[in-house]
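In this supplementary section we document a worked example of the pipeline. Step one takes a protein sequence of length 69 as its only input; no multiple sequence alignment statistics are reported here. Step two produces a three-dimensional model, which step three serialises into C-alpha cells for compact storage. The input and output of this example are shown verbatim.
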Amino acid sequence: MDNDLFPSERTVTGRLLRRHGAFILQCDGGGELELRLPRVPVDHVGKPVCIVGRMLAPGLMEAEGVRGA
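The serialised model returned by step three reads:
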C-alpha cells in the first residue's frame, strides 16, 4: 500500500488564529499551518490548542479535531 495515498494522522500544538477568514495554527515549534476545519472553533481562537488531522499539502492541514491544550 502506498502511504502517499493515505496520509497518516498527525497531532500539532500551537495557538489558533483567525486571519482573513481562514483559521491558522501558529505552531509551537515554529511556522504556521492553514487549517481546513469541519466546524468553526470560535471558542478556541487566540488560545493554545491541539489539532489532530492530516497534511493535505505543505502548510495546509485538514483537521479532524480541535481541543484546548
